[in-house]
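Slack export, channel: ligand-projects

TW: morning all. Re-posting the request from yesterday since it got buried. We need the structure predicted with the small molecule present, not the apo form. The ligand is fe (ii) ion; the SMILES is in the block with the sequence. No rush, but it would help planning for next week.
GE: picking it up
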Amino acid sequence: MIYMSSGEKDVSLDELIEKLNYDLEWEYAAAIQYIQHHSTISGAQYNNIRDELAVHANEEIQHAIQLADQIEYLGGDPTIKVEEIKTSDNSKEMLEQDLEGERDAIRRYKKRIRWAESLEEYATAEAIRKILVTEQEHEMDLMDALDL
Ligand SMILES: [Fe+2]
Ligand SMILES: [Fe+2]
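GE: finished. pasting the full token output, ligand included:
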């Protein structure tokens, strides 16, 4: 097993694969959460974001596919486990749940990019960078809708 310094701690390929599988669980959950929130959110002020949530759902599915492909490439076994899905009767609260999920994803992906690079898995790092760009767009869409 190869260990290399990531600047924060030594990370192994096995650990990277394990955490990418954790990220994959959250991508599945995000897609389902966005589909449900898209369908149930109400209020004229949320007309624009309602459409956008359906776009997000599709993009989270694409992220899941990209992560699963990277996990497979690295020698892992892509998970079928789904993380916790959050919802509410309150439309604003649903958007806050979505925003929290995006911010958590952004934190995790920044870390994964550093880890992948420390293991010289540059293509994996590049794939995650592209995912990160979309997550930041999702974050901004939600902040706009929440007037933040
Ligand atoms: Fe995502
Ligand atoms: Fe996202």
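GE: first-pass observations. The first strand starts at residue 3 and ends at 5. The chain has one domain: 9-145.
TW: perfect, thank you
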